[in-house]
């Protein structure tokens, strides 16, 4: 008996002896911050999560999707569930400060920027050969995010390093000129340090051409056409126009036109794309398992195509048949169609990539920067349409500017370009007025509100946009 | 009977030889409380060794030394009684059973004290109060029986543990469940809310993990609940929510006692929800479609009428409507009368050296939701052996196996809630044999285009195959060693191992019964948890100079737990023949593990002077792996004082006063239920694709907080205990005030930091309340009637939140739960709706502001901030779930073998958030869901405004229809007939012939009736069990009425 007691006593003493280790429990299923961001390998691993942000920030329910497309004359919303008015207020320009989508977008951008900033600051402390190229990728992403933000909100808080809670409370909105300056700085760094597309780090990584294309667009947006032309010409001729249908062909991803493309993989356990599931008519249960009804195509867009333009039927489906044989008259985009996608919770787990920058964009921007229609005509020649100025060219587009506006609308239909383009060219207000939506708006209302909750949390420091005061 | 026979001989052995003068002869008869004779009772003349034992008829004769002699009458299991002879020659002596005596022992953690010496606030509930209750978890039997302990059965599926809150909620994020100590093993209740809703609700393995789920209520000897902080402080960083101590039954030396119990019964939902019939729904839906179309066309005369606002032609066809009749009440399809049975067998006994108790229990219980079943087997063996006069060893082993089909337990968007929302005009089966109208081959498919809804209950219960199997083994062994006289060393090692496996398969397409065609899917989940603890204590107990008693305890304990979870899901099944994952394509798999450890030192001293002045001081030091590097150790002191005034000379002669004691205590306790790795900056994973390869990326997913620590509660308690007239009236009263500091909060921070919130110890709240217990013996003869009444109240108030005291809002499904300084935790926050705008004239008069776009018949929203506008600034507090007070009333009657017990329980002043009202009461037909029948009284026109409370039906919400408002908040007050037990003990004379010691027949009824105005099933329903969302009923599993017939045979 005594033996048992001694054994137990011994065990207790043993525990007392090792008490300090006993209480140290490192996480088993999560890596620990303190031993990460320490090597080239760590930075490369972290970069995947930086690219991961693209899924959210450019997905079907994202700021580019709703601001760039749904607010324009191209699209309307037809979703049945959730906060209908939050979607409708993009479509109908009835935006309010408590729009939950706008709040989510705001948060998503700063979460993504934090991830990128963390990588940049950590990498700058390290020393390895490919360091600057990796930082260049991170800065490209940061520029891409800030560019969308500054266009949608105007002045936004510019955060370029991880900041403390106290600093976060102190940080107000940065004037948009300074934000643009930072975007240009980041893109110039990226263009200088990144390899060309043919030797990119992985298929889909940011490249020198991607940085220059985006930089060209930034210059156009800030009104510097000369710099835009100079920058875009560095990309001119490096890519080619593939047949229009090939752009979304699942077997021809990352083709010769692709400059920067979000990479997805179909299948329910993969990072799959949701464009197909969400852009099909709501609750159709025929075309797709369910259908999100986002960004449905307006008659304005449908009618914008010239009669012989093959791009219309490659981009848009007009109506579908129910099992009982009746036709539902609704137009929707089929660019991201993936008929073979497995269904996950009523949503297609599609394989389609999403192209953010492609060569046709470079060509149209070059025309915009130089007023020379030859680049524009390359795009038209690709689909067999008469050149601007040639016989058969639609008479109503009688200036280069109007020709560009028309060409971009049909070339990039449903690709989140339209509203950004119209605002850049100063045409947004008249176009939306004369469209089927017949909306009267003002310059001030072209910007989104700063979310009410953001101002509420830090009043006095974060200010509201004029139209929402 | 044989037991008593045996005890008779035992008594003989103990009986001392008889000496001395014998002068006066007396005769007597000894009986128990019910008048049954007691044989083998020791009768001794006080101060002498002169004594005898009673015979089989309870009779004795004894010659005493004087006519004024005092007899001491004692018998095992009964209170010792002193009887003055006073010259009588025939005495009739009645002995009271032990359970009622003041010397009752209370378990206080690492030891026990006599109830009269208790200085803190502890409720002790013995087996007698738990017998015959047909509950799967013993906590369910406590409701209404313990002041200050709120037991809420938020969902009624068999096997689902109730929620327990002791003295209110002391935390917002760190959990409000008490610590459970089962035969010395402290176990945390790691239950999380059932956040997986709908079909996957039952597969959340972190839900319903109450440690008492695996304990057979029949094995429990006593439950002791440490309520005040001075009592709970001995459990340190885990004591802030109180401590529930469970002691299982031990054998007693003597003849082997065998008990067999058979129970059988049924459950059903008596309190159904009144929904619209088919014809009522058709009329409502037609009105909604017409009203919305009128609004659309008024705004745009050239608009085309969409299918969502078009009235189906069938709805205008009286013949069709007549053919449908009342349609289908989907509740009747989802719910059933369920059978249950319970079988218990136990044996206990032993010798002076070795005692044992072993038991087997089997429960099979159907749920009232279709296909929901619960089955449990329990085996227990408790052994104790005396190796020598100084050394004792023992071992308790409890094993259990639970098999359940957890249908309907999601609490939200699950069988019951969806059945209520399903449209009543659809048949149980469509003509093709399918469950629903989504079948394209069915004539009913024509309704698809209008957006009608049906979630056929069978699509979730019979088209899904779900099973959860849990094995729990709880083992503890100990050695006690009396090192020297008065000094005892005890050491124990225990382990608790839990294994759960969950299988789920959903047939392809669900026979068209679900809201859409969903392909076959399957998942497989496991949870393994391993907890071990080693504890050692030394106890020194000595009385000095007769008057000073000192009891000192010191101890050390180390505990560790590891939990491993895994899950796998598969799809693309070729058919529904094989349900395991190998038949399909596995599309996701994951494992997750976590650990925690706790090291503790504890000490306690009890001192009493002449049994009059009592003092207790205790301290515990806890080191936890969860705490940040800068705060590894926490210290939890406590002290308490008591004064037994009735022992003072000035009160000793007050004959009617049996006991009077005042108590005062203060203690500090902690709540360590913070995330296991909350103090460490964790990295999250997010993938990106390149060239068809998925690459796992890493990012920082939370802020590191090296200062993270426990929440700290300080509580002061003042109590009075008194009993008068030989204990026939007993009173206990307590008042307390507790303040919790360092509340763990997810403080909102600007997203510019990369995060929207961070977990920090900041924030304070207080709880204050009172508890009163009153017990009376109203009749004490052949007919006996006792009453126990308790009433208690708690007020909860948040004192501080974060740096800026910004309120914490949780938004779920259009409702806001707001926790703000000066208010209670989790207030409902939204608009106040004062009925409807009664007429166009009323609207045009502009007597009050309305929501922009309102028409007559739309909700009338109160202008709370009086700014002449109705907007989001008019939201305000709408109440919360916490009641103003609660009470319980038990009446026990007994009369010659018959026993009747009636338990009533009530709650007053709490509100319930009827989240299903978002659809069922909204009057908005856009979801095409069925409505409560009260909605029939909707606004029809200026001339027919209904009852002025229900808005005009619409398809599309135009104002606050779908915003959280007072329209969804209902009174949660209720009175419940919780339990009625009627028992009959067969006459001894009859059972003795059968060589059986007792046969008892009984009927037990649980949840007999609820008096409440609540529209849903039960005013205690809640989809969430902890945190700020308690009180939200989003279609919780109904609490059924249960009736059981039982037979208890003892040998």
TrEMBL record, chain A:
<keyword id="KW-0472">Membrane</keyword>
<feature type="domain" description="RagB/SusD">
    <location>
        <begin position="336"/>
        <end position="468"/>
    </location>
</feature>
<dbReference type="InterPro" id="IPR033985">
    <property type="entry name" value="SusD-like_N"/>
</dbReference>
<protein>
    <submittedName>
        <fullName>SusD family protein</fullName>
    </submittedName>
</protein>
<comment type="similarity">
    <text>Belongs to the SusD family.</text>
</comment>
<dbReference type="Pfam" id="PF14322">
    <property type="entry name" value="SusD-like_3"/>
</dbReference>
<dbReference type="GO" id="GO:0009279">
    <property type="term" value="C:cell outer membrane"/>
</dbReference>
<feature type="signal peptide">
    <location>
        <begin position="1"/>
        <end position="20"/>
    </location>
</feature>
<feature type="domain" description="SusD-like N-terminal">
    <location>
        <begin position="21"/>
        <end position="220"/>
    </location>
</feature>
<keyword id="KW-0998">Cell outer membrane</keyword>
<dbReference type="Pfam" id="PF07980">
    <property type="entry name" value="SusD_RagB"/>
</dbReference>
<keyword id="KW-0732">Signal</keyword>
<dbReference type="InterPro" id="IPR011990">
    <property type="entry name" value="TPR-like_helical_dom_sf"/>
</dbReference>
<dbReference type="InterPro" id="IPR012944">
    <property type="entry name" value="SusD_RagB_dom"/>
</dbReference>
Automatic annotation (TrEMBL), chain B:
<keyword id="KW-1134">Transmembrane beta strand</keyword>
<dbReference type="InterPro" id="IPR012910">
    <property type="entry name" value="Plug_dom"/>
</dbReference>
<protein>
    <submittedName>
        <fullName>TonB-linked outer membrane protein, SusC/RagA family</fullName>
    </submittedName>
</protein>
<dbReference type="InterPro" id="IPR008969">
    <property type="entry name" value="CarboxyPept-like_regulatory"/>
</dbReference>
<dbReference type="InterPro" id="IPR036942">
    <property type="entry name" value="Beta-barrel_TonB_sf"/>
</dbReference>
<dbReference type="InterPro" id="IPR023997">
    <property type="entry name" value="TonB-dep_OMP_SusC/RagA_CS"/>
</dbReference>
<keyword id="KW-0472">Membrane</keyword>
<dbReference type="InterPro" id="IPR023996">
    <property type="entry name" value="TonB-dep_OMP_SusC/RagA"/>
</dbReference>
<dbReference type="InterPro" id="IPR037066">
    <property type="entry name" value="Plug_dom_sf"/>
</dbReference>
<keyword id="KW-0813">Transport</keyword>
<keyword id="KW-0998">Cell outer membrane</keyword>
<keyword id="KW-0812">Transmembrane</keyword>
<dbReference type="Pfam" id="PF07715">
    <property type="entry name" value="Plug"/>
</dbReference>
<dbReference type="Pfam" id="PF13715">
    <property type="entry name" value="CarbopepD_reg_2"/>
</dbReference>
<comment type="similarity">
    <text>Belongs to the TonB-dependent receptor family.</text>
</comment>
<dbReference type="GO" id="GO:0009279">
    <property type="term" value="C:cell outer membrane"/>
</dbReference>
<dbReference type="InterPro" id="IPR039426">
    <property type="entry name" value="TonB-dep_rcpt-like"/>
</dbReference>
<feature type="domain" description="TonB-dependent receptor plug">
    <location>
        <begin position="114"/>
        <end position="243"/>
    </location>
</feature>
